[in-house]
Amino acid sequence: MAESTTNPLAPGTLRRIERHAGALATSAVARMEETLPWFRALPADQRSWVMLVAQAGVRSLVEWLSSGATVAASTQEISDEVFAAAPRALARAITLTQTVQLIKVTIDVAEAEVPGFAEEGETDALLQAILRFSREIAFSAARVYARAAESRGAWDARLQALLVDALLRGDSSDVLASRAAALGWADAPPVTVVVGRSPGGDITAVLHAVYRAARRARLEVIGGVHGDRLVVVAGGATDPVATASALADSFGAGPVVVGPAVPSLDQATESARAALNGFRAAPAWPGAPSPVSADDLLPERALAGDQDARRKLRQEVYGALTRAGSGLIETLDAFFAAGGVLESAARELYVHPNTVRYRLRRVAEITALSPFDGRDGFALRLALTIGRLDPAT
């Protein structure tokens, strides 16, 4: 496609604009200080960066006008040079909205002062050229911020992957805190970890879906993809299963397991370990809900060799029943041996069936596991077995 051009301006006009380029940039910065309160609050070094950009902008305008105001690839190159004058840190210090305000102020100053330099009959052409150049500058600013956003996004994704990896490895709380601080993590207690299969595809897109779901649920999240697994750390998870449900659509097919809630990110390694071990053991329970709590998978986790699960069953179930006394363990043994028939268990124990019923209710109160429920009964029988295999521990 042919380039779109305008007739070059008179040499006298270009010389006058070039001679007053420094004054134009100074006037633009003065107008910024006058009209933009946030600009006055900037540190001196950042205001000097803006001055450099303003000066580069006026120089680029003169170069562009001298070339005949070409609207093509060369225009993009010239406009991009404007922002090359400032450090990349400027894009982090000043938002895109603020940059648009700076461009507008600069163009307003140019529109007010530059026409006075135009030779007779060139005022309208000069104003139109300035407006067209301002459009190119705006596009160039958008490109700068887009590149900065892509760079920050890639860096944040790497940091999040490192943080999740540190959680899974059980690194020290100092390592977790430093990486979380770099990501701007707001430690909103309680914290839980959710593990499931990654839906596949671009990792950035996968994590974007997680963040979108987290915003809707008002959760603070950090996510990472490890192999075929998607691991999400969620803050503000007062109900871990409800939190996992809010994020469930971000995961791929298969079980989604949520670890127990912990007070802070420093202790999230415990939740991550439970969720990860639960994810590995979940296929052993085909009828498991999704999402499912890692604590609901204690029997499968224990059979898969998870020492934390064995410890919980031994201490929180077998140990609690042992401390309670009152023949609860003996009653459970008789009840299971009788195939869940109260009367048969009562005959074996030489007690009334109501006594057996009362003791089994006590078991449920103490352990939160009902002997009358098939799933809970499985966990109770396994806890008794583990407790007897290692009673000293």
Automatic annotation (TrEMBL):
CdaR GGDEF-like domain: residues covered: 170-277
Q: Which residues form the PucR C-terminal helix-turn-helix domain?
A: 328-385
Q: InterPro entries per the record?
A: CdaR-like_regulators, CdaR_GGDEF, PucR_C-HTH_dom, PucR_C-HTH_sf
Spell out the PANTHER family in the cross-references: CARBOHYDRATE DIACID REGULATOR, PUCR FAMILY TRANSCRIPTIONAL REGULATOR
Family, per entry: Belongs to the CdaR family.
Name assigned to this protein: PucR C-terminal helix-turn-helix domain-containing protein
What is the scientific name of the source organism?
Actinoplanes missouriensis (strain ATCC 14538 / DSM 43046 / CBS 188.64 / JCM 3121 / NBRC 102363 / NCIMB 12654 / NRRL B-3342 / UNCC 431)
